[in-house]
Amino acid sequence: MSEKEIKDEVKHEVDEGQEVDAGQEVEVEVKTEVFDISTYIDIVKDLFVKYYTNPYMRQRLCYHITDILPSTLETEEKNREKRLERTAFLTNEQQIFIQVFLSKNQYYHLQNNGTFYQYDGKTYKLVTEDDIQYQLLSTISKDRTLMDWKHKTKVNIIKQIKERNIFKSVPESETIQKIINLLCPSMFSTKSQVKYFLSIIGDCILKKQNDLIFLTKPKTKKILNELDHMCYIVTGYANITGNFVTKYNETYNYQNCRLINISDTMSVENLREIFNKNGLDFLCVATHYSERYGNSDQYLLCSEELANYAMYMKNNNQAEIFNKFCSYSFESVLGEAENDKKYSISWKNMHFIWKLFISKHSLPSAIYSNNLKKLLKDRYPYDESSDTFYNITSKYLPFVSHFIQFWESTISLTTGGDFDDEIEVDELCGLFKKWIHENDAVTYYAGNTNEHDILKILNHYFPNIEIIDNKYILNVQCNLWNKIGDMNQALTSLKNHYKESVLLNENSSLIPFDEIYAYYVKHKQIKFTISKLYFEKYLYFALAEYIQYDKFVSIFWVSSS
Fold first, then answer.
1. How many CA atoms lie less than 13 Å away from 361 in the CB half-sphere?
2. DSSP code of 302?
3. In the prediction, which pLDDT does 62 show?
4. Is-contact 357 328, C-beta < 8 A?
5. What span, in angstroms and rounded, lies between the C-alpha atoms of 183 and 201?
6. What is the C-alpha R_g of the chain?
7. How many Cβ atoms from other residues are within 10 Å of residue 424's Cβ?
8. In this structure, are residues 339 and 383 in contact, taking their beta carbons and an 8 Å threshold?
9. Which of 355, 180, 392, 406 is nearest to 274 (CA)?
10. Coil, helix or strand for 548?
11. Is the dihedral of CA 221, 225, 230, 236 positive or negative?
């Protein structure tokens, strides 16, 4: 390589940002494989021959060779040694500075969206490259040692930060526990379930185990959509929950199916608030768990109970699931007369018992209803004309039949009235238990009533009933409890109480809703208590002309007729 080519290359490297120390010249060493000293001796001889007849020039030549050249070479050698020492010193200082700076300032980057991030040991946040450069140059200026190399140092550090993927970072325990506590028990019942879910999300981000299918409840779809939206906004990664499905398809391979039990009671608004404040922390903890355990399947080795549930479909084929359903739900009755109605179950009831089974065990509906019916027909005696299975009974049947009997004998539909009647599901459970205790034949089931099963029955047998938020059953009344009558009685009693007492004086012109409700709770004559929300809803209806400031009743109501 020629000297000119070497200089051009060095100039190119300088232009690319490899700064040279201030005042330092670019040092170029032209190396040759063989050093031929005779060439340079010949050059000196030629000079002596050239100036041999010129005494002045011959004297100057001798002076340069004996005085100037040795002094010049010695000076250049010393300067070169100083430059090398300074370069070595600054290089070492730069390495130490970069190491300390990146340790104290944990910056990261994502190539797919070109975004920079910072972690302070508690929380991850987005930052700009300008923020990083300002912090970097401010630190260099305080140190002063690398002032001449500040541009080179800045370029070096930014390059290293761009190589630090945020999803390779290791969050501190405080960050991890914060995320786990935010999701348990609001979204999962145990911390192990939270960690498994985080491992799954980490796998999805890092593109691991893409062939797996994670089955969850249909009502969690909004939760998954919210997670997708947050991840795209924060990192640019799209559809990270693409492997989650909320409805089983018979084309799925059982070996690739995993179950994840996400609570469907958590509101999307609460989850959105969590993600707005902690979304990036959530994603980083998720990828950390994926990297820590290798993948979500490997995490399951930490909990046998969790693994048995998550791997339920992998470890059980359709026939095994059907056998477990039958053994859990039914008892065959032998030696009875064929088609004895006493030991029969209609297909509609069979289908409901299947729904109870998968709901109780948090399983997907892995057997389609037509296939389920075929399997049942192959196992139990069946009459096509009545669509009924015989010589079989179920522990669920008395509960179902008793609730239907309770509903049909005590509940009436109300539409078109001035005020919308409603019963809360927990109130309905209490009324059902009251009805059970008053009917000796069904006392056995008094302790087996819960809101979840009641909702299942209502949705299956009374699909036209309007239920809001799995809590409020609209336009229904129960003859065991006249809610409107109780409220009217309480208002009348309170009005008389005020008229006969000195509780109201000239300075009292308003009666708070809280005071009215407290009076009702204290003086109600039955054990059932109307919720404060429904009570206030009735106040707005019944005392509309006396309502003031939204939460008060005018004193003129007391003297009204």
1. 21
2. G
3. 92
4. yes
5. 14
6. 41
7. 16
8. yes
9. 180
10. strand
11. positive
Q: N- to C-terminal Cα distance for the chain? A: 112
How far is the C-alpha of 398 from the C-alpha of 331, rounded, in Å? 14
- 76-100 burial, b at 16+ Cβ within 10 Å, e below that, comes to eeeeeeebeeeeeebeeebeebbee
Phi, psi of 526 (to 5 degrees): -125, 165
Q: Which segments within 307-464 are labelled E, that is strand?
A: 330-332, 344-346, 382-383, 388-390, 392-394, 411-413, 422-424
Beta-sheet strands, E only, within 220-266 = 244-245, 257-259
**Residue 64 per-residue DSSP state:** I
Asked if residues 247 and 219 have their Cβ atoms less than 8 Å apart, the reply is no
**SS3 category, 240:** coil
pLDDT at residue 334 in the model: 57
Query: Hey, what are 32's tokens?
Result: 């040759």
CA dihedral 463, 466, 472, 476 (to 10 degrees): -100
Residue 104: which residues within 8 A CB-CB, separation 6 or more?
A: none
Angle between helices 397-410 and 451-461 (to 10 degrees): 70
- Count CB neighbours of 166 within 10 A: 21
Burial of 532 (0-12, 13-18, 19+ CB in 10 A): middle
Amino acid, single-letter form, for residue 217: K
In whole angstroms, what is the distance from residue 41 CA to residue 21 CA? 36
Please list the residues that pair with 394 across neighbouring strands.
330
Spatial separation of the C-alpha atoms in residues 43 and 37, rounded to whole Å: 10
Residue 91 and residue 140: Cα distance in Å, rounded?
A: 14
Identify the segments of the chain with pLDDT beneath 70: 1-35, 333-342, 416, 440-448, 501-508
Burial class, 290, CB count within 10 angstroms (exposed 0-12 / middle 13-18 / buried 19+): buried
- Name the token pair of 410: 């005590």
The pLDDT score that the predictor gives to residue 374 is 96
What b/e string do you get for 443-473 counting C-beta neighbours within 10 Å, with b at 16 or more? eeeeeebeeebbbbbbeeeeeeeeeeeeebb
Query: What tokens does 258 get?
Result: 């995993």
* Peptide bond connecting 185 to the previous residue in cis, omega within 30 degrees of 0: yes
- Alpha-carbon gap, residue 280 to 234, rounded angstroms: 7
Q: What span, in angstroms and rounded, lies between the C-alpha atoms of 504 and 438?
A: 44
Whether the Cβ atoms of residue 281 and residue 178 lie closer than 8 Å to each other: yes
Distance between CA atoms of residues 354 and 349, nearest Å: 9
CA-based nearest residue to 457, from 479, 443, 473: 473
